[in-house]
Amino acid sequence: MALHTQQSISGFIATEPQQTVTERGETRFYARIGQPRFRREDDGSFTELAPTFHDLVAYRATADRAVARFAKGDSFVAEGYVRTFQVERDGEIVDREEFVAKKLGHDLARTEYEVDRTRRQTVVQTDAAAAGRDATTPKVASPFGNPVLGL
């Protein structure tokens, strides 16, 4: 089985994150991000260069969680893809790009935090008789997308 990979990006949140709603009514997270850059010198040392700045967006549940958890200055890692698009600026068409984060979290190497391992379960209403189960046993949605039986 082939290993599934996607593009990733890491850096820091350079602006206060913004929450908006798309035309479809979905939550959108936006932040300007910075990526530190370094140059390796002949003696093996590194010289810090000016960071580059880019746009980062996330949608739906990822956006909801990002808005609640990220602030300016936070270090992050993200998985997703680069989206290119065109905008009009001063009558001229300009190419732009943004990183669309499907998964987004704090950078473990640069962030101190505590993990809440409380199980998040969503009860799914089903016809228990048709499913061949006792009506008191709820069917629960797994965080991995496969239904599991709640005990």
Molecular structure report:
By secondary structure, the protein is mostly beta strands. The protein is 9% helix and 52% strand. β2 and β3 (27-40) form a beta hairpin. It is globular and about 55 Å long. The protein starts with 6 loop residues before the first strand and ends with a strand. The relative contact order is 0.17.
Outline the fold blueprint.
Blueprint: E1 7-13, E2 18-21, E3 27-40, E4 46-59, H1 60-69, E5 75-89, E6 92-106, E7 122-124, H2 128-131, E8 139-141, E9 147-149
Parallel strand pairs: 4-6
Antiparallel strand pairs: 1-3, 1-5, 2-3, 3-4, 5-6, 7-8, 8-9
Q: What's the gist of this structure?
A:
With 151 residues, the protein is mostly beta strands.
Shape: globular
The main sheet orders its strands as 1-3-4-6-5
Beta strands, count: 9
Q: What is the chain-wise order of helices and strands?
A: EEEEHEEEHEE
Extract low-pLDDT stretches.
Answer: none
- Report how far apart the termini are: 33 Å
Based on secondary structure, the structural category is mainly beta
Strand content: over 45%
List keywords for this structure.
151 residues, mainly beta, 5-stranded mixed barrel, 2 helices, globular
